């Protein structure tokens, strides 16, 4: 079996980051073929090794120091331990920088400067170096020195304000998303900025400094809802599971499960009313525009649709929607995800050898960049 070349073959990354956001960025570069050298503290390692609720089981049947949290953000890396606060550790890092293309760190603002490992010092050693700092609030400003974690930024950046059940519903109020989305997307922004810097260096021969902040990501993530506010000056209401662009869109009950429906255009909605044998709903003034179906009329319309859908099994309901081209999907619990035929077809679970695991291997979430025709991301 031939191995396809990697997009970042020959690129070396020094990863001095810990926990989640920045390590995800370094991991993406590793998935794309970069040689990532992860630097951890002697005897302790990355703080992320102790996060999470599950650890890889070792050959002795005991938990290893590799948590699920660490595992999901540190594949395709070679780890070394050294103490960067000691002169000998600093010299090793500077030696690595001589031939490195990228350095990623997420220490507090100014921390590494105390040890002669800041951008200006390392740039003098290697002018082509791309140095990326990832912090909660960025390198400057009134909050720059503050620590920060994902949940704080979901609250501060506006994401919680638009997530959760609408006011007036039991349990209504701001809601944090389950996964650490700000961390995860900050990691992707980190990788994207570095890839842009590599392209710039290809043209100019010059490295550069990159300042990535979780706060910036958290505000940008509110996306079209924040843009709605910037244009109208009115904060949109929380919509629970409802769609933001068009409707009806929400969870529907089937007789044996749950599906999610997005009839996001007038034509989708017209087909839905015919499918339900209730074509009069198409011209009902409560639901005769996308805005009404997504906002003022959403709850009542979903109640009407549920009265119809709840008598039909999931498989049959999805087939009905598919027959008229209405987008819908089965709601999956986590164990259902890996039984989904399309998930299996796309190879979204990857099994890789693991020297210390009792099973000799571990299952990982595959890179979503693995479908590139010439230089796919891969777990090595």
State the order of secondary-structure elements, H for helix, E for strand. EHEEEHEHEHEHHEHHEEHHHHEHHEE
Q: Mean pLDDT, as a whole number?
A: 94
Number of helical segments?
Answer: 14
Rg over C-alpha atoms, rounded to the nearest angstrom: 25 Å
CATH class of the largest domain: Alpha Beta
Low-confidence stretches: none
Helix content: 25-40%
CATH hierarchy: architecture of the largest domain: 3-Layer(aba) Sandwich
CATH topology title of the largest domain:
Rossmann fold
Multimeric state: single chain
Terminal-residue CA separation: 15 Å
Tell me the structural class: alpha/beta
The shape, in one word, is globular
**Fourth-tier CATH superfamily name of the largest domain:** Crotonobetainyl-coa:carnitine coa-transferase, domain 1
Main sheet specs: 6 strands, parallel
Question: What topology, given as strand order, has the largest sheet?
Answer: 5-2-1-6-7-8
What's the number of structural domains? 2
Number of strands: 13
- Percent strand: 15-25%
